[in-house]
Structure formats: structure tokens, C-alpha cells
């Protein structure tokens, strides 16, 4: 025969186990990474999967190309202060969520982003702060007047 | 004596003629007599002048007295109105008393009728207070009922801040930062130019 105390005890133990983990879990952000190859050709081309970026790709400095191809795409949930590696077709990127400010205004996200080329050489290391939904784009020139872009956008 | 009486009658007839009080036949006779008798004509002219003098004097006196009469009439009218007002109020009160029905509804109606001014003022004040309360409540609902079922969600005004590049390290070249703004949101572009390309330029 079980007493009320013995029935409540497992719940208390479970709560003690779960609560510290829940308290320690920091904020997270869901980030989209889009790797793009840019070139020039007679016929302009922007695929449907790049429609969210189409307006931006038609403005400088991207307007020097007119053909854009999506090389890879990834969506990752990033925990604060926990670096996340994103494999790219032409290299890799590392993203670290350093701060996420959910104030009365739009959520402000601070990221540390690094991009390496396919040879493992560091292309850029940047720390940026942007509103949720805005994009950070890292780009570099490739031989034959082509371009390599990595666009990232995060939401809480 | 007879002659004197005749002269007196004649003078009276001339005076009446001058005043226009004689009939047409008598006036013609007097006119004929005046034309024949110079003394009578002199009397007629004297009477005319005297009549004109008296009339002019009376007209002047009337003109002078008119403002005083107007003031006097004004005072009389005020007094009449003053005397009439309490009598009318008394009459009205007595008519209400007489016309009021004896039943409960009649008493209520009479009570309301007597306090009509107070009731109208109270109703207007209550309406104003209700309107203010509705306005205040509507504002509070807009602020607090974001998740309430059926309520219209209120989208807060968001202050958009532009992206910021806090630090940039480009080991193998140089970096240029652009900001692109459009309807889909801002984009911060970090464009890396390899060192060999820069040197080649």
C-alpha cells in the first residue's frame, strides 16, 4: 500500500533532476545558412529557392553578377555560447551565438561568424549584431570573376 | 341786442368755418359773407392765425413731452409685468396641482416633471462619464488583450536597428562592409577581397 508521500516522491525527484537543466539552458536561435555561387552569363538566372534574397542580389555589390546558384542550405538551432559548424560546398563556417536580447523592441542577435575556404584558410572572422530576420552575408571573389557567398539569418 | 346777438352768431360761424366744422351749405354762406364784409374777413384771418399759433404750440409741447411719456410708459409696463408674473406662476402651480393624477404613476410623473432640469443634467453627466470610461477601457484593452480570444491583436511599433559589425578580421586580404536595405529586411554584407587581388590592382 502506497502512502501519499511515496507517490509524490518520484515527482519531486524528477523535478529536481529536470529543473537545473532547464534553468541552465540558455537562449537559442534558429538560423538559416544559404551558400550561393555567383557568376555572369548571357541569361540572368535566380532560382526559386533564392527568392527571399532576390531583391538583395540585384543590388551592389551582387549586381555585377546575374546568375546565382544555391550550393547548399542548412537550418540549425544554435545555443548561446555553443559554436556550431556548418559544412559548405566550398569550405565551412562556424557560428557562435553570443547574445540574444529579447527586449521590448525587435530581438537583437549577436553572432560571431567565421568562414573558411575549401583549403581550410580563414576567409573572415566577424562579430555582428543584427535584428532577428536580417541577413549577414559573407562573400569573396573566386577566379574567373565569380563569387562565393554565405548568407545567414537567425530568429529566436 | 338783436344786432349784437347776430354779430355774435356771425363770429361763431366764422370761427366754426375756420375750424372746418360747418356743413357745406353753411360754409358757402359764411364764405360769401366774408367776401362781402372786409371786417368779417379780418376776423376770419385773425382766427386762422390764432388757430395756427395754438396748434404749433401744442405740437411743440407734445414733442417735448414725448420722451417723458415714453419713460413713464416703460415704468408702467414693467410694473404690469411684475404684477403679472407671480400671478401666472401661482396659476401654473395651481393648475399642476389640479391636473396631477392621484395614482402612483401620476405622482411619479409629477415628481419627474418638477425635477426635469435636474434629471436632464444628471443624464448628460452620466453620459459624459460613460463615454470617458469607454474610451479609457478601450485603450486599456488595446494594451492588454494581445492574446485574448476574439480580440484584435495589436501589433506593437517596432524600432528597427541597423546591423552592426562589431569586429572584422580578414587574414588573407581586406574586407568591405555594405548594408543593403529593402522591404525584406536589412542585410549586412562583408565582402572579402584577397590580398593578391588588391596587390594586382
Tally of DSSP β-strands of chain B: 3
Please write the string of helix (H) and strand (E) elements of chain A.
Answer: HEHEEEEEEE
Q: Determine the number of helices of chain B (DSSP H or I, runs of at least 4 residues).
A: 6
Largest sheet of chain B: 2 strands, antiparallel
Mean pLDDT of chain A: 85
- Looking at how many chains there are and whether they match, the oligomeric state comes to heterodimer
Order of strands across the main sheet of chain A? 2-1-8-7
**Strand order in the sheet with the most strands of chain B:** 2-3
Taking pLDDT < 50 over at least 5 consecutive residues as the criterion, the unreliable ranges of chain B are 143-148
Count all strands of chain A and give the number: 8
Percent strand of chain B equals: 5-15%
Give the strand content of chain A.
Answer: over 45%
pLDDT averaged over residues of chain B: 78
Largest interface: A-B, 35 and 33 residues
Outline type of chain B: elongated
Number of alpha- plus pi-helical segments of chain A: 2
Range of helix content of chain B: 55-70%
Largest sheet of chain A: 4 strands, antiparallel
**What would you report as the Rg of chain B, rounded to the nearest angstrom?**
54 Å
Q: Round the Cα radius of gyration of chain A to an integer and report it.
A: 21 Å
Instruction: Quote the distance from N terminus to C terminus of chain A.
Output: 48 Å
Amino acid at each position: 500500500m502506497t502512502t501519499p508521500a511515496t507517490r509524490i516522491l518520484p515527482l519531486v525527484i524528477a523535478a529536481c533532476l529536470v529543473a537545473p537543466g532547464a534553468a541552465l539552458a540558455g537562449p537559442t536561435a534558429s538560423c538559416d545558412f544559404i551558400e550561393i555561387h555567383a557568376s555572369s552569363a548571357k541569361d540572368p538566372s535566380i532560382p526559386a529557392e533564392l527568392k527571399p534574397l532576390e531583391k538583395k542580389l540585384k543590388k551592389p555589390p551582387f549586381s555585377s553578377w546575374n546568375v546565382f546558384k544555391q550550393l547548399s542550405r542548412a537550418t540549425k538551432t544554435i545555443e548561446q555560447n555553443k559554436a556550431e559548424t556548418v559544412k559548405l560546398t566550398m569550405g565551412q563556417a562556424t557560428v557562435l551565438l553570443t547574445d540574444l536580447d529579447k527586449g521590448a523592441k525587435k530581438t537583437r542577435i549577436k553572432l560571431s561568424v567565421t568562414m573558411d575556404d575549401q583549403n581550410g584558410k580563414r576567409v573572415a572572422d566577424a562579430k555582428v549584431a543584427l535584428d532577428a530576420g536580417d541577413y549577414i552575408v559573407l562573400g569573396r571573389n573566386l577566379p574567373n570573376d565569380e563569387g562565393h557567398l554565405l548568407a545567414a539569418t537567425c530568429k529566436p | 341786442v338783436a344786432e349784437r346777438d347776430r354779430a355774435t352768431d356771425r363770429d361763431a360761424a366764422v370761427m366754426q368755418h375756420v375750424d372746418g366744422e360747418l356743413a357745406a351749405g353753411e360754409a358757402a354762406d359764411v364764405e360769401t359773407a366774408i367776401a362781402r364784409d372786409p371786417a368779417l374777413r379780418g376776423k376770419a384771418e385773425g382766427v386762422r392765425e390764432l388757430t395756427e399759433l395754438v396748434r404749433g404750440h401744442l405740437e411743440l409741447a407734445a414733442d417735448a413731452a414725448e420722451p417723458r411719456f415714453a419713460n413713464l410708459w416703460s415704468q408702467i409696463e414693467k410694473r404690469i409685468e411684475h404684477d403679472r408674473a407671480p400671478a401666472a406662476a401661482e396659476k401654473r402651480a395651481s393648475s399642476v396641482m389640479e391636473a396631477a393624477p392621484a395614482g402612483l404613476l401620476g405622482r411619479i410623473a409629477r415628481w419627474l416633471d418638477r425635477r426635469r432640469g435636474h434629471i436632464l443634467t444628471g443624464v448628460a453627466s452620466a453620459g459624459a462619464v460613460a463615454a470617458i470610461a469607454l474610451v479609457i477601457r478601450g485603450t486599456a484593452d488595446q494594451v492588454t488583450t494581445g492574446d485574448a480570444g476574439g480580440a484584435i491583436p495589436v501589433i506593437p511599433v517596432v524600432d528597427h536597428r541597423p546591423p552592426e559589425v562589431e569586429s572584422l578580421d580578414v587574414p588573407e586580404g581586406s574586407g568591405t562592409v555594405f548594408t543593403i536595405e529593402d522591404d525584406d529586411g536589412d542585410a549586412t554584407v562583408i565582402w572579402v577581397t584577397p590580398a593578391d587581388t588588391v596587390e594586382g590592382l
